[in-house]
Amino acid sequence: MLSKEESEDFLNSILGIADCFKKFEQNKVQLLSDIAYSFMHAIPFQTVHAINVPPGERHLPTFEEIKSSMMTRQGGSCYSMNYFLREVLVSIGYQVDYIGAKAFGIDNVHLTLIVRSLAQFGDSHLVDISTCLPTWRLIPLDFNEASPVYKQGFLEYKFSRKDNNTISFFTIRNVSDNTVGEEDKWFLFYEICLTPCTIDDFTANLQSL
User: Fold this and answer.
1) Which of 90, 154, 157, 207 has the fewest Cβ atoms within 10 angstroms?
2) Domains of the chain: which residue ranges?
3) Are 170 and 160 in contact, with CB atoms under 8 Å apart?
4) Cα dihedral 175, 186, 119, 113 sign
5) CATH code of the domain made up of 4-206
């Protein structure tokens, strides 16, 4: 849905990343890291624009509407931002799947991305630029049981493998009670299913955003 020229223009004029195709050939891990980090700084994750629209009249934006929102730095929901990012990455040459996240007991309530065969053939990295708990980095998902604990400013988070197809994302609670055990400080933020989705799989749960 995005031409190579459109993606290059977005990266250059909006994110300040020039020569994306050359950089992809030189170091695609570094380029992806730069794109995700710059995207989170330049484009706001927000649903404020939907407040003006009565709940019964809300709809998921078309890709043309999403493209306009990204090119004007308006930003949007996880649906808009990760949808657009995937199109940018695919046009450059990355292998990217839509992945659904489960939260509050609801499947596919959050749209995120996994990039395949990035550092080496067959590996998987989580890329999520649109969440209220930003990771600010690529997350390798090929650990056996648990990831390292990541610390970014005041944020502290980790990932663990629930089963062969599910990974849990935990963030640490802000707990001042010294009697609380170490494991009790961790709060389940969401769970991701590693089975690829289509963009249509998110329509039912994200339609009213």
Assistant:
1) 154
2) 4-206
3) yes
4) negative
5) 3.30.2140.20
